[in-house]
Amino acid sequence: MTTATATNPAYKRVVRSLGTGAPVYALLAALLVLLAITDIGFYEPDRFLAFVKRAAPLVILAAGQYLVIVCGEFDLSVGAIVTAGVVAAAEVYGSYPDAPWVLMAAGLLLAGALAGLVNGLITTRLRVPSFITTLGMMLILEGAVFYWTGGSPHGQLPQDFRQLGRGTAMGWLPWAVLACLAAGALAVLLMRSDFGRTLIATGDSERAAALSGVRVHRARVIAFVLSGMAAALAAILVGGFSGVSAQAGRGYEFEAITAVVLGGVVLGGGRGSVVAAMAGAFSLQALFTLLNLRGVSGALESTVQGVIVIAAVGIGAADWSRLRRRRTHSSGGTPS
C-alpha cells in the first residue's frame, strides 16, 4: 500500500464505514456459507436471484427505516403502509381494471409519501413521540383496511402490475432485484450528501445541530416521507409476488427495525451505516431461510427477532458507553 493510498480521505471513509458494519458483514458471510452447505443448489443463478427477490422488500424497508432511526426517531407504520398499498391497489383495480400500472405505482408512492408526511408533521410540530405517532398510524391504517374490506380484500392485481414483483428483465433478472439495487444506491448517495450528514448530526445531538443552523424538523419530516415511499415501493413488490392479503405487510415494521439494529445502527440516532442496515436485512432473510431449510418452525421467527434486537441493542449501548468514556477521558473531563 502506498503512502498516498493510506492517507487518501476517501479510502479512510470507506474503511471507517466498513468498520462500523463489520459484524453484520461477517454474519452475512457466515450465513451464506451455511446456506451453501445446507442446500448445495442454493447458489444456482435462478435460486439465488429468487432469494434476493424475496429479501428485496425488507431491504428497501430497512433503508427507509434507517433514515428515520439515524435521525433519532422510529417508524412503526411501514408494515401497515405495505398492507394498505396492496389492498388499495387490488380494490382500485377491481373497479378500474384497465388502470395503467404506471399510474397505480405512482399513486401508491404518493400515498406512502403522504403517510410519511403526516407522521413527520405530527412528530415534529405537535411533539408527539414518533413511537406513539407511527403506532397510531399503524392502527389507523390497519383499521381502515379491515373496515374497507371486511377482512377479505376484493379484486385482484393484473399481471402487468404483478410483473414488478414477480417478473424479470431480459428474461433472467427479477425487477424486484433491480428495484432493490436502485433503492440501495439512492440511499447510499443520499447519506453521502449534505442531507445525510444533516440526518446523522440531528440524531447525534438535536440541540447542537439546531445551533449549527440545521433545520432539524425539516430533516426529520423528509426522513419520514422517504420511509413512507420505501414502504409503498415494498408494497408494489409484495403485491407482485405474494398477491392480495389483508396481512400482506404484517410484521414488516419489526423486521425492518431488527435489520437496522442488526446492522449496528444505534437506536436514538447519530451513528450507523445504511449499507450495514441493508446487510442486516439480507442477514435476517438468510437466517430465516436457513432455519426453514433446517426444519425449524417459522413460528420461532419472532423469537429470533426478539433475541437479535435485545442482543444488538445491548452490545451497541455498551460499545457507545465505552466510546463516550474514552472521549471524556481524552478531553480531560470526568465521565457522567
Overall mean pLDDT stands at 87
Distance between the termini: 41 Å
Overall geometry: globular
CATH architecture field: Orthogonal Bundle
Number of DSSP strand runs:
2
CATH class: Mainly Alpha
Low-confidence stretches: 1-7
Number of helices: 15
Strands side by side in the biggest sheet? 1-2
Descriptive account of the structure:
Helix 5 runs parallel beside helix 7. The chain has 15 helices and 2 strands. The N terminus is likely disordered. It is 75% helix and 1% strand. The protein has one domain: ABC transporter involved in vitamin B12 uptake, BtuC (Orthogonal Bundle). The chain has a two-stranded antiparallel sheet. It is mainly alpha-helical and 336 residues long.
Q: What keywords describe this structure?
A:
336 residues; mainly alpha; ABC transporter involved in vitamin B12 uptake, BtuC; two-stranded antiparallel ribbon; 2 strands; 75% helix; globular; disordered N terminus
Summarize the structure.
This protein is an all-alpha fold and 336 residues long.
Note the topology.
Elements: H1 3-7, H2 9-20, H3 22-38, H4 45-70, H5 78-95, H6 101-125, H7 130-149, H8 159-166, E1 168-169, E2 173-174, H9 175-191, H10 194-204, H11 206-211, H12 216-242, H13 252-262, H14 274-293, H15 301-330
Antiparallel strand pairs: 1-2
Helix pairs in contact: 3-14, 4-9, 4-10, 4-12, 4-13, 4-14, 5-6, 5-7, 5-12, 6-7, 6-12, 8-12, 10-12, 13-14, 13-15
